[in-house]
Amino acid sequence: MGHLSQWTVGFIVGLLIIPCTQAGIYKWVDEAGRTHYSDRPVAENRQEIELRTSPGNGTPPPIRNDRKATRQRMLDIYREERAARKEAKKKAQQKKAERKARCKEARSRLESYTTAGSIYDYSEEHGRRYFSYEERDQFIDQLKADVAQWCRK
């Protein structure tokens, strides 16, 4: 468990010790991108979490049950956020791998066509049609643009 995770778990456990009767739970993200929970709104980008309570016979439920429900709700929210972060990280890694593969392909094509003596286009109807010097330069410029697009950091 990393330093940030221990801090987050400690913070959540600290919040669970405080009785949360009839108090709203607020969630906010600080400047460093960390998510916090509290019974008071602290930041402008806060989000109030509404806790569902079971309808009773007019008597308030024991504080212990409220704490248990609050703790469970907070743990559920934490699990959902953790799964969302994990999914986002996975997608980012896939995107990075795709960019890397496309960059490698674009560089390979550019090198191949730059060193080629002549470039041609082939069609069934007309066979080989060799590019003029102007067409060749335009084609290589397009390949350079592809390298710039896929290989930027």
Protein architecture, described:
There is one protein chain. The chain is of the alpha+beta class. The chain has two domains: 3-92, no CATH class; 94-151, no CATH class. 57% of the residues lie in helices and 13% in strands. It contains three helices and five strands; from the N terminus they run αβββαββα. The chain has helices at 3-17, 63-115, 133-151; strands at residues 25-29, 35-38, 47-49, 120-123, 127-130. Strands 2-1-3 form a three-stranded antiparallel β-sheet. A hairpin with a 3-residue loop joins strand 4 and strand 5 (127-130). Helix 1 runs antiparallel to helix 2 and helix 2 (63-115) runs antiparallel to helix 3. The radius of gyration is 29 Å and the shape is rod-shaped. The two termini are 30 Å apart. Residues 40-67, 85-109 are annotated as: Disordered. Residues 40-51 have a biased composition (Basic and acidic residues). It holds the Pfam family DUF4124. This is DUF4124 domain-containing protein.
In short:
57% of the residues lie in helices and 13% in strands. It has helices at residues 3-17, 63-115, 133-151; strands at residues 25-29, 35-38, 47-49, 120-123, 127-130. A hairpin with a 5-residue loop joins strand 1 and strand 2 (35-38).
Q: State the distance separating the first and last CA atoms.
A: 30 Å
- Number of strand elements: 5
Q: Helix count?
A: 3
Structural domain count? 2
- Can you tell me the overall shape? rod-shaped
Helix content: 55-70%
User: Which stretches of 5+ consecutive residues score pLDDT under 50?
Assistant: none
Strand arrangement, largest sheet? 2-1-3
Rg (CA only): 29 Å
**Major β-sheet annotation:** 3 strands, antiparallel
Coarse structural class: alpha+beta
- What do the pLDDT scores average to? 80
Q: Please write the string of helix (H) and strand (E) elements.
A: HEEEHEEH
Strand content: 5-15%
